[in-house]
Amino acid sequence: MESPRQLQTDGVAKRALCLYGLHTVLNNGTYLLGFYLLPQGFMRGGPQVAVGGMVAQEGSFWGQLGFTLLFNLVLASGLAIVLNLNRVRTVPAGYLFPIVLGITGGLISGTNSFAASDLTSYNAWEGMALGLSIGGLEMLAYVLVVAATANLTVYQYRSWWRWSGEWKATKVRRFRDLKLTRSEVLTLAIAVLLLLAAAYKETVFSFAG
For the residues of 118-132, what is the DSSP string, one character each? Predict the structure, then answer.
């Protein structure tokens, strides 16, 4: 097993750029897949869309804003951090978070499966601005959260496969020894600001429509 020092990954900026690039490639690819090969509304039964529908049903501005922040800041970001407490060989498990969101997000957009909006009612100019100012900000923030906390490894696994015989976790660090560098703290703070801005924009858009 590697020592905690050996488990340190590249700088936070490089982590963020690589993760965001990978997410973008997967998101664009699955968008085209959904648009050309799948029927509209194909992803409306998925958990991401279901959560969006629950938030959209909130009747008050501040209530919807609060629910959005609860999901984005506490649940989604918290899940990314918890995943990063685990590592398979040299890969933080939190890296799976933007990968999965890239795939599912592309399919949701490509099949027009949003719970509270219809993409066919917007032209390309408006649609791209709307997507980048809400979903784009959220995804960038999630990537920053994952990149900032990638070194918080506590448990390490030797295999991704549960039945490989090498899946058992080894504790490589105590929770009280976990800490972030200044650049990682700054990255995390930027992520929080982006989530606040995206949640406000999404709530304003929802009540303006």
Answer: -GGGS-HHHHHHHHI
| Alpha helix positions (H), 38-136 | 47-56, 61-69, 77-84, 96-110, 124-131
Q: How many Å separate Cα 144 from the centre of its chain? A: 9
CB atoms within 10 A of CB 110: 24
Rg over CA atoms, the chain: 18
Give the contacts of 173 (CB within 8 A, at least 6 positions apart): 4, 7, 153, 154
Query: pLDDT tens for residues 67-107?
Result: 889 989 999 999 999 999 999 988 999 999 999 999 998 88
Render pLDDT for 173-195 as a digit per residue (tens, 0 to 9). 889 989 999 999 999 999 999 99
Torsion of CA 42, 58, 208, 111, to 10 degrees: -10
Cβ contacts of 192-198, under 8 Å, gap ≥ 24? 192/73, 192/141, 194/137, 194/138, 194/140, 194/141, 194/144, 195/69, 195/72, 195/73, 195/77, 195/137, 195/138, 195/141, 196/69, 197/137, 198/72, 198/133, 198/134, 198/135, 198/137, 198/138, 198/141
